[in-house]
Amino acid sequence: MALTLAEKILQEHIIPEACEETAFIKGTPIARGSDIAIKIDQTLTQDATGTMAYLQFETIGIPRVKTDVSVSYIDHNTLQTDFKNMDDHRYLQSVAAKYGLYFSRAGNGICHQAHLERFGKPGKTLLGSDSHTPTGGGIGMIAIGAGGLDVAVAMGGGAFHTPMPKIFGVELTGRLKKGVSAKDIILEVLRRESVKGGIGAIYEYFGEGVASLTVPQRATVTNMGAELGATTSIFPSDASTRRFLESMGRGADWTEQKADAGAEYDKVIRIDLSALQPLAACPHSPDAVQNVSALTGKPVTQVVIGSCTNSSLDDLESVAAIVKGKHIASNVEAGIAPGSRATLLMADKAGILGDLIAAGFRILESACGPCIGMGFAPNSAGVSLRTFNRNFKGRSGTADAEVYLVSPETAAASAITGVFTDATTVQYDDPAYATGVRLSLLDGGDTRLSLQQVKDFASDGGMLIPPLAESAAAQVEIIRGPNIKPCPPCRETADTLSFPVLLKAGDNVSTDDIMPAGTKVLPFRSNVPEISRFTYERIDPQFYARAEATNFGGCFVVGAENFGQGSSREHAALGPMYLGVRAVIVKSFARIHKANLINYNIIPITFANPADYDKISCGDTLTISGIIASLTKGMPFSISVSGKNGTFTMEGVNDLAKRSRDILLAGGLAAYTRKGGN
Length: 678
Known about the structure:
By secondary structure, the chain is an alpha/beta fold. The protein has 22 helices and 26 strands. Helix 6 packs parallel to helix 7 (215-224).
């Protein structure tokens, strides 16, 4: 039977003995929604999530990682205003040396960009403690974002469990015209599908239009698939993929990966690339998409090009082509953060960097930086055009800023004019389009960089420390600074929970809302008691005080649709767990946040009757009874409510797979793993 590419790779990685509820027949479609367990070939972490992941890994008691490749990247907390972030970096470097990981030092680049260049392999699985790990799908991987504890288990050789996603096909035809880019492809998908349209799904791109896209362009699309709520996104591995890997000096890693002829998708979205126009996601959501032409003339105060979405050499080349010989407008502040050290070196050699500096761009560190509110914040009430992936309110570091997500071409054109500008109306020479088909500099698109020069830059390992031999690793002492605290234990599972509702939230609550990033909060990622003070701060600044008034003895949180969208940060579960949140009851969850709640023994419940949401108020007392039986037998949750609307009972959906229920019964994933769970 014909299979999609995603199904083929997943079937090659399924661990049948770890799938208690699902039977598999190789070569036939897997039942959607059934629990699958897959082997993970590669893992990645970054420093904002890595410290907690490795603190958990240490407790597992395994002397060395069991994956093919595991990498610890430093790319988030690189703003070192005191000892905290640097202490985390030293801890992470010593852990990498101790347990057999590669260590990517600060300055080597953003984890997804650097991993694509150095380690990505078609047909392999990648699990990362960052929601934009699906970037790897641009090279033909099944690359999934997850919480740090899930990654720690995978590093120890454990399976990664997930409900079998639906497979949504995206058929691409035609070719992008000059001034339109891969960013516009994914913004078009977001316009059609919304930030919750991809929950429980994989987006698989196919069609004759795929061949015209470079690997960095494809990675832009798969990167922002995370904003759809998707499990991951994937492109085939073809001749373009082969050229990319050869330019990285890794041609031997290439394999062809494609769907079977006649493969059927759960639904198909069709996009004519030649008909696309420049698009922008308006404040404050990635799916609030409009044509740039409708925004033309709106004044702009800041432009930033970078993030793991649009910081490749392709992107910098496009920007340089537009701004060469010009200068940014006097009312605009502009910055560029190259995605990796290799990209920065190649941009310098090709003359691109000089063109950008001459045009007035500030060159920022090769790191996440402004994307997570770590510097380069907009002015108050500013209009910031960013080639990033998220524009949630306040994420930039400026609460009242208007942040728009745009392509590098739109950003560059607007930086020159000082107002929103449609890049298709701008005259510029771009050698990448000289033949009518975009060729990356990495593919030999012009003569500014030879392929040998690209290989030399790409293979430079000066900022990448390889794993130590086991004998040397055994002698390594792990370094811990005073801000690094052990992960607090989860609370034990009880048969009855009776506590007040301390927070009632609305739709599309993000993990930024639950646990903010930025310069004030990120340095406490390795210190849960301190970082928990910021829990739900953006929704209700008094939440911590109310939880403290209960002596952190217990409470519930109620929410609406798509609760926990955005980043994979498990601190959005750790903080609530520490403050006593025992269950979260909502209309629907984002995938990663739901998994993180389970990992830290917070029961995720959805309303059987969504109208019950309107009957509950902050301060009401909820009693969930018969929890052990519900988790053991998979029965619905019985909930009684006493509060402003009187006393009534309601039912909570228990859609948890058996393994998830067993994790909750065990008291969280760490306890479950220690007890021998797979």
